[in-house]
Amino acid sequence: MSTAASLVQREPALRGQTVVVIGGSAGIGFETAKLARSEGANLILAARDPERLHHAASQLEALSTEAFDASDPASLERFFGNLPTTIDHVLVTAGRPHYGRLIDLDFAQARDALTEHLLVTLQVARNAAPKVRPGGTLLFMGGTGARRPGIGLGFAATVTAAMPALTASLALELAPVRVNLIAAGFVDTPLSASLLGEDLEKRRNQLREALPIHRVVEAADVAALAVHIMTNTALTGATYDIDGGQQFVRGA
Asked: Which of 34, 77, 94, 161 could be disulfide-bonded to 70 (CB atoms 3.0-4.6 Å)?
């Protein structure tokens, strides 16, 4: 018997399911959508940039797309209101980290930063939960990098600490819809490139030397975790770290 003939055929893990990705045009969102599509999922993608969103949707054969700012409550409510009656999973990767000294952060900046993370999470949960089938998933992105206090990390640390508690509370309130959080360290994405600019390759090399895994975490690594959380129906209310051990290495 040939090796090929002996392989067991596996049913695609998300066949016939609908996966919504907010922030699905690039980085972690795009890679998760691509993996979900390869596992048989139907895709609904949302992002801010219409051109980039259209390109991603054409690559992944998405059912539909909508370009909007997820931090705008009215746009978010309209988006979920227009979705099909039943969806299976929602991943939210929209938003970016906020760095800087707390005493230099004005209240308008603070409100915007909170909205991008904690309040968007609440808005998505409120609007998505009635559409998600029992056992389906709301999946949010957090981080591990600000778990150690540091100057310039105060606001990021606040969000980092709050998101697991918010996730666990939502999991209890929205059951049997499952709610989980992915906490990532540095991930090599276009967002990281935009934040680091010319220092990107230096940061990559630093992490290759310092991390226990001896490589940089890629968006595809996070996507694999996201799809696993979608398909494993025993997982809810939890935070899943994926940083290659970055939080355990001083100075990384």
From this structure: 94
